[in-house]
Specification:
The chain is globular. The two termini are 35 Å apart. It is built from 22 helices and eleven strands. The protein has 519 residues and is of the alpha/beta class.
């Protein structure tokens, strides 16, 4: 009881051990980074893509002026050993780490069309629906739009209907909620998936890296895309753009992101301070698509000044089919527990046809059961960090059990992610290292999981800090480590040795001790 009161996980005494000693990171100077980058650019390991695909040193149209190496023999001499298994998908030729076992199948949807990208670059893409609706709502002046061009707003009853009730919904997760991770969660029981948050302005500029966030795997049978923008005209045009160019089942507008770079642009949770702008965004955006439009918010921007309850009664009339409420304010970020009592209050004020989805601190099937049954107006719950730490939470909910998963079973899940990653990012050296990077980002969360058999109190709570402990075997102990060096060791068991000079520090400060030393 004392440990739980201090939010420390009550691990059985037999498995406890002294915490490891932190080793300080070695800091590199800007000059050292610049020198290493130049050496990398001049390295024979950077084989020209055209040469690699064809196997012909003369295939590159840039010839001697190409920035990459054309020396095939030198590249093959230093190329790392091929990985075990067969190539999942490959256009990489000699660069492939599964050379000779290529497959041509690709099950991904929503690539960025090059012609569309060029139109976006030249700002010549047309938005007739959005422009007409923006003018109709008086949001700004739009030239060359006649009244006859005004598109009639699809009535909510005419839209495609999605029944969210009691479906297992994997939250859109920045960085770690990538396509391979979502695909993994589908194999473990997730019903609904949603792409990572994409910024409207970047999509409108045709940025390939932002459009990659909209990609969908064929296994994602109920899939949404999430966008984030600050102004009604920008968001409405983005909705029309992705509605024309992408395959998805619903579109979600993020009005809850707490990140400074988003909030400072007036987007994300900053919109909670401007309810009339929320109204304009939802009205304009819902008018340009017949697919369901959903909105994700937090309780408020400032702690103690809840605003979400004032939105739920009107947002359905504005055009939203569902609203997801994260039970924390922007100011609170992820500290303290989610306020589910307030989520229930919001749900009680919602119209009968509006789906209300709760979000926050779901980490076991008992958490899920309690929150879904806590209010009859809650359609379902969105699962975020709980899925990052243990993606088999979807299996636990469907089978109504606390799964004492073995280290071997957990390793097989990591192996599936690595396979899906190589399919998505590629099986050449760059694809392998990109897969490794996202695997390491994910491992910075999974280390917080404590096996069921080691706990005195079950289930584990999301806010418990794991003490330093030993697992029931060496692999389980390794997986419990919050050291980046050990995460790298796990990645090497799946993707081979890391390149010389490799270091890693997680993007998110997700591990319990806020440490990521490399040795």
């Amino acid at each position: 009881e004392e440990l739980v009161a201090r939010a420390v996980a009550p691990v059985k005494p037999a498995f406890l051990r002294p915490p490891p000693v932190a080793v300080p990171l070695e800091k590199k100077s800007k000059r050292q980074f610049k020198r290493e980058r130049k050496q990398e650019q001049e390295s024979v390991s950077r084989l020209c893509i055209a040469v690699g695909k064809s196997g012909n040193p003369d295939a590159c149209k840039y010839g001697a002026s190409c920035r990459f190496s054309h020396d095939i023999d030198a590249y093959l001499a230093q190329k790392p050993a091929d990985l075990e298994g067969s190539c999942p998908f490959c256009p990489y030729g000699l660069n492939c780490r599964f050379l000779g076992t290529h497959k041509s199948e690709n099950h991904e949807i929503n690539p960025l069309n090059k012609d569309v990208q060029k139109l976006l670059w030249k700002t010549k893409y047309k938005f007739p629906k959005a422009s007409a609706q923006i003018k109709h709502l008086g949001l700004n002046s739009v030239p060359c739009v006649e009244p006859r061009d005004l598109v009639e707003t699809p009535h909510l009853r005419e839209r495609k209907i999605i029944d969210f009730r009691e479906k297992l919904y994997l939250a859109p997760l920045t960085t770690v909620g990538n396509l391979p991770f979502r695909r993994l969660c589908k194999t473990l029981g997730a019903d609904i998936t949603c792409g990572e948050m994409a910024m409207c302005t970047n999509l409108m500029q045709g940025q390939a890296s932002e459009w990659a966030l909209l990609r969908r795997h064929s296994s994602e049978d109920l899939f949404g895309v999430q966008i984030c923008g600050a102004f009604p005209d920008t968001v409405a045009r983005t909705v029309e753009l992705v509605d024309n160019e992408c395959s998805f089942d619903f579109i979600d507008i993020n009005m809850g992101c707490p990140i400074d770079v988003v909030v400072n642009k007036g987007a994300g949770s900053q919109l909670l301070t401007k309810p009339m702008r929320i109204k304009s965004i939802v009205q304009a955006s819902s008018a340009v698509t017949e697919r369901p439009l959903t909105v994700k918010v937090r309780t408020a921007f400032f702690e103690g000044r809840n605003r979400a309850d004032s939105l739920v009664s009107d947002i359905y009339d504005w055009g939203a089919s569902a609203i997801t409420i994260h039970g924390r304010s922007r100011q609170q970020r992820y500290s303290k527990l989610a306020d589910w009592d307030y989520i229930y209050q919001c749900a009680q004020k919602a119209p009968d046809d509006l789906h209300v989805i709760g979000n926050g601190d779901i980490f076991s099937y008992t958490d899920w059961n309690r929150h879904v049954s806590g209010c009859s107006k809650i359609s379902t719950c969105m699962i975020a960090r709980g899925a990052l730490i243990k993606p088999w939470i979807f299996t636990e909910i469907k089978e109504q059990k606390d799964w004492d998963i073995t280290s071997g079973e957990r390793f097989n899940i990591l192996k599936d992610f690595a396979h899906f990653g190589l399919e998505h990012w590629g099986s050449d050296s760059k694809g392998v290292e990109t897969t490794r990077h996202f695997l390491l980002e994910w491992l910075s969360y999974t280390c917080r999981y404590i096996p069921v058999g080691l706990l005195d109190v079950v289930p584990q709570r999301l806010n418990w800090r794991p003490p330093s402990y030993c697992g029931r075997d060496d692999l389980e102990t390794l997986m419990a480590s919050d050291s980046a060096a050990d995460w790298v060791r796990i990645s090497e068991m799946l993707l081979g040795k890391v390149p010389e000079g490799f270091t890693f520090a997680p993007k998110h400060k997700s591990n319990a001790y806020d440490r990521a030393e490399n040795g």
